[in-house]
Amino acid sequence: MRFRSLISLLFLLFFTSSAYARFVSVRPSSTNLISDGINTVVSAEEKEEACEQTYGFMPCTKTALGNVFLILVYGFLMFTAATYLSAGSELLLEILGPGIVGGLFLPMLGALPDAMLITVSGLSGDAATAQTQVSVGMGLLAGSTVMLLTVIWGTCTVVGKCDLRDNIAVNNRDTKGFHLKDSGVTVDVWTSYAARIMAISVIPFIIVQLPQVLNSTSGRHMAVLVALILSVVMLISYCVYQVFQPWIQRRRLAFAKHKHVISGILKHLKQHALGRLLDDEGQPDEHVIRKLFETIDANKDGHLSAAELKALIIGISFEDIDFDKDDAVGKVLQDFDKTLDEQVDQEEFVRGIKHWLIQAMGAAGPSGPDAGPRTMKFLDHFHVQTKREHALLGDNENGENDEESGEVADPKWITIKAALLLLLGAAIAAAFADPLVDTVNNFSAATGIPSFFISFIALPLATNSSEAVSAIIFASRKKIRTASLTFSELCGGATMNNILCLSVFLAIVYLRGLTWNFSSEVLVILIVCLVMGGFASFRTTYPLWTCFIAYLLYPFSLGLVYILDYWFGWS
Fold first, then answer.
1. What is the dihedral of CA 524, 529, 532, 533, to 10 degrees?
2. 3-state DSSP call for residue 543?
3. CA angle at residue 114 from 108 to 120, to 5 degrees?
4. Which of 493 and 107 is assigned the larger pLDDT?
5. Distance (Å, rounded) from C-alpha 482 to C-alpha 474?
6. What is the pLDDT of residue 155?
7. pLDDT cut 70: percent of the chain above it
8. Is the model's pTM score more than 0.90?
9. CA-CA distance, 393 to 186, in Å (whole number)?
10. 50-106 residue pLDDT tens
11. Tell me: the pLDDT tens digits for 286-317?
12. Whole-number Å distance between alpha carbons of 222 and 3
């Protein structure tokens, strides 16, 4: 259905582009010849009123209403291109898995429509024309980032909200309504890392802006070059991180599970030691630990075998956290068995338990809940902490995968389909990016509205619509895992704007010798990225009230640019 709509729209465009009429003259003829009423001479005024067609055949108009129609048409085509690129990327990911595909291709393909529009905005005509039209590219760059982190972020918070219990969202439970504090979303710790990366990605903006901050005119071209090199380096680094992130995540998750096993064993030993694992001075009590060793040593041979350790772990309730028992036994042996004889003697057991207890006390901190050496409350704190850490690292909801698992039915056909969708999406984006930029400039000329504000508001609706709909639908599943993926994608999209799209923009400015004069736009990007990035970097739960911060930043950004540009003359 979408493909048929696309074909119909293309036919409409081409037919309207060929609809011309000649002017009927009512002026008297100076000759005695009989006129047919048609004047083939075009006056200077008519030439001035005629618009320049993109590629020589695309439709154009000088009227405001006509340009609104063309913006809607070209915007729909860019939205279609983004949709095809997204669908092709998902199919490619299904075949090849994350790794290079998820780390390199998906982020770049997601930013391709924006990059196309930025490119054509700076390559059109001579340098003077490009300097005028490049504001469209900057408007898109700023508008896309701001929309992702404000309107879309706030909407995902609203549709994904769940009840908060102990400051953690409860999956699929939404009984608090729109309570501002007791309702919200929880994300994993990887989302916090994504937010920190996004905040760091604004550094090239700061560098390119330094000469204007210092009122220097001599170093502006060099600042553009330095910022360009840094943004390219950051782009490569980000892609490498994305490639290895699944491996890092697995290692972190395995470590979190091991810490949870440690806390479970310590709680189990505490129950059997009647809370006397620490002496009166708050230090591990070796005498009690040795008695516990004798209790666990079933065959009384003075050593704990792998089988005895596994029996201990199986007998402990780990509150539905799924892990490999044999792998857990292996990691316990690594902590305890210093002689590498695949068993643990009493001295090794005492040293290992003492080390675990000190580790747990350190996690509680000097102001933790341990009110005294004999209360052992620090173990409860350590247990809650490890459980929360495990949950925030994201473990597919205890083995449940939101996506369908299994082998792909027809990998060859899926690969061909993915390639066709990617080619079609890239072709549409490349073909209609230039006409869209021209139409925005024509609409700006017809209405007197600066092209920056048109591109800031209208163009992100076209290029980000597919991503926005996908994020909102995913957030509506009301799970920690889906919320984590949603907000990570939003941070990732803003990061790609700050490094990939900015790299394209800076390359155009540097190679064409254009003037960097976008102080207000850069300030808006910095404020939004640092506020939302700083907020999401240090917390994993977003109560419902936080959506108002996101929503208010959008009109604030528009108003700030207008005030700085037209009241203070920044740009």
1. -160
2. strand
3. 115
4. 493
5. 6
6. 95
7. 74
8. no
9. 11
10. 677 777 778 888 888 988 999 889 888 888 888 888 788 777 766 665 555 555 566
11. 777 787 777 777 777 777 778 877 777 776 66
12. 46
| DSSP-assigned letters across all residues of 97-160 | -SHHIIIIIHHHHHTHHHHHHHHHHHHSSSHHHHHHHHHHHHHHHHHHHHHIIIIIHHHHHHHT
End-to-end CA distance of the chain: 44
- 3-state SS string for 174-233: CCCCCCCCCEEEECCHHHHHHHHHHHHCCHHHHHHHHHHHCCCCCCHHHHHHHHHHHHHH
412-451 CB burial, b ≥16 within 10 A, e <16? eeebebbeebbebbbebbebbbbbbbbbbbbbbebeeebb
- Higher-confidence residue: 318 or 78? 78
Strand duo 183-186 + 344-345: pairing: unpaired
Token pair 């330094």 is at which residue?
210
Per-residue burial over 243-279, b if 16 or more Cβ lie within 10 Å, else e, is: bebeeebeeebeebbbbbbbbbbbbbbbeebeeebbe
Provide CB contacts within 8 A for 164, sequence distance 6+.
Answer: 170, 176, 181, 182, 183, 184, 186, 541, 543
pLDDT of res. 30? 46
3-state secondary structure of 163: strand
d(CA 427, CA 424): 5
The first and second tokens of residue 97, run together, are 């898995």
Q: Say if CB 333 and CB 306 are below 8 A apart.
A: yes
Distance CA 47, CA 41 (A): 10
- Determine the Cα–Cα distance for residues 356 and 377; give it in Å rounded to an integer: 15
pLDDT of residue 550: 95
Residues 378 and 361 sit within 8 Å (Cβ to Cβ): yes
The structure tokens listed for 136 are 């469209």
Query: How sure is the predictor about 418, in pLDDT bands with cuts at 50, 70 and 90?
Result: confident
d(CA 11, CA 420): 21
CA–CA separation, 145 and 525 (whole Å): 7
Q: How far apart are CA 228 and CA 364, in angstroms?
A: 45
